[in-house]
């Protein structure tokens, strides 16, 4: 597959240009995710290579032992069977999801968005060439090009067995899948990530962390959307003006609670409570007041998507309280939320970032694309 993708580089880029030409560029985040250039093809190849070199996750013994009655019991990792992933844009998912599922001995059904149909078709053709050259059938990796109605019908009455569905997108997609699916759904949920700036935060760290978390890649689910400022922060006015100016210099729109508007030049008032629930996927950030770490954690748990949250403080004990109390897949102390990513966390390529608690939260890498099975060995045992 590494060789085939490299040889097909021009075909991939030409197909992607077809998709880009047909795209209505009113959704910047979706457009950013759609773009494939030569560097992204290199990234696809690097991802394949990294997964190829990881150990086979299937048949690994999780526990073993012999009971008092002589029964020997092993618990081993096993494939799910068939995984359906539904995603928008992101042609690189067509590479990463398929390679992870395949190496974990799962079949995968790829339901990409119509905006990436030409790119996805070329990438799946590459997969089918690789499968054929190794004597394997094309049904290991299939591309679905169903419209919304056909997808709904497939979820309700699948024409083939499906063991796990992973919707990778916003609330609308997730709710659509959960409403109609007839099998297990593992949610790759929205971001809406929060930062809490404690009163003792080191503002020499605050500025680069907030700027990076917000602006490094606005279309990513690990981008920052909300900042909670502790009302006891000394010299807050000057600090916020400095942060606001740095964000405006990066063309970020500021919105804030009324009492913070005088401290953030050019900021607009928050339109309503619904803004706190919103994942922006845009150059936009929201500021609010909070009184202490407990109220910060309470507000984050109420409004966030359960993806990533960060506390900026020099007090480790305060950070420990925050990190234990915030109910998110990844919690940070003095670091950008942009690290919630399989590669950045040392997991390798990822299928998605799960915000579910069963069976796994965080990056879904190769080791997480397995279930388990008990192997029980007896010698005429009866109960």
UniProtKB/TrEMBL annotation:
It catalyses: L-glutamate 5-semialdehyde + phosphate + NADP(+) = L-glutamyl 5-phosphate + NADPH + H(+). One of its GO terms (cellular component) is cytoplasm. Pathway: Amino-acid biosynthesis; L-proline biosynthesis; L-glutamate 5-semialdehyde from L-glutamate: step 2/2. It is an enzyme of class 1 (oxidoreductase). It comes from the Bacteria. It is found in: Cytoplasm. Its EC number is 1.2.1.41. Keywords: Amino-acid biosynthesis, Cytoplasm, NADP, Oxidoreductase, Proline biosynthesis. GO terms for biological process: L-proline biosynthetic process. Gene3D superfamilies: Aldehyde Dehydrogenase, Chain A, domain 1, Aldehyde Dehydrogenase, Chain A, domain 2. The keyword Nucleotide-binding does not apply. GO terms for molecular function: glutamate-5-semialdehyde dehydrogenase activity; NADP binding. Belongs to the gamma-glutamyl phosphate reductase family. Catalyzes the NADPH-dependent reduction of L-glutamate 5-phosphate into L-glutamate 5-semialdehyde and phosphate. The product spontaneously undergoes cyclization to form 1-pyrroline-5-carboxylate. This is Gamma-glutamyl phosphate reductase. It comes from Parapedobacter indicus. The lineage of its organism: Bacteria, Pseudomonadati, Bacteroidota, Sphingobacteriia, Sphingobacteriales. The gene is proA.
């Amino acid at each position: 597959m590494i060789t085939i993708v490299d040889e097909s580089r021009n075909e991939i880029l030409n197909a992607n240009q077809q998709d880009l030409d047909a795209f209505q560029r009113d959704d910047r985040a979706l457009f950013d995710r759609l773009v494939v250039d030569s560097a992204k093809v290199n990234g696809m190849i690097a991802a394949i290579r990294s997964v190829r070199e990881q150990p086979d996750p299937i048949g690994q013994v999780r526990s073993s032992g012999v009971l008092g009655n002589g029964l020997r019991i092993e618990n081993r990792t096993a494939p799910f069977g068939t995984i359906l992933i539904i995603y928008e844009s992101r042609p690189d998912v067509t590479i990463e999801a398929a390679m992870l599922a395949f190496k974990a001995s799962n079949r995968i059904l790829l339901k990409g968005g119509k905006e990436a149909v030409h790119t996805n078709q070329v990438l799946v053709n590459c997969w089918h060439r690789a499968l054929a050259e190794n004597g394997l059938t094309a049904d290991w990796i299939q591309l679905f090009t169903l419209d919304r109605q056909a997808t709904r019908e497939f979820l309700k009455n699948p024409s083939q067995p499906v063991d796990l569905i992973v919707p990778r997108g916003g609330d609308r997609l997730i709710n659509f899948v959960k409403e109609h699916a007839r099998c297990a759904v593992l949610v790759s949920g929205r971001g809406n990530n929060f930062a809490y700036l404690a009163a003792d935060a080191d503002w020499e760290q605050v500025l680069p962390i907030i700027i990076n978390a917000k602006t490094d890649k606005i279309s990513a689910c690990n981008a920052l959307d909300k900042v909670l400022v502790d009302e006891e922060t000394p010299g807050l006015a000057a600090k916020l003006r400095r942060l606001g100016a740095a964000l405006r210099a990066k063309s970020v729109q500021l919105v804030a609670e009324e009492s913070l508007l005088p401290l953030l030049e050019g900021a607009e008032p928050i339109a309503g409570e619904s803004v706190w629930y919103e994942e922006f996927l845009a150059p936009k950030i929201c500021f609010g007041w909070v009184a202490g770490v407990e109220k910060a954690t309470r507000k984050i748990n109420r409004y966030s998507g359960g993806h990533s949250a960060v506390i900026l403080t020099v007090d480790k004990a305060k950070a420990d309280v925050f990190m234990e109390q915030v109910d998110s897949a990844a919690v940070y102390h003095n670091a950008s939320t942009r690290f919630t990513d399989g590669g950045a966390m040392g997991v390798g390529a990822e299928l998605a970032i799960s915000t579910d608690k069963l069976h796994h939260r965080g990056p879904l890498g190769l080791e997480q694309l397995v279930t388990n099975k008990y192997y029980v060995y007896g010698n005429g045992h009866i109960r």
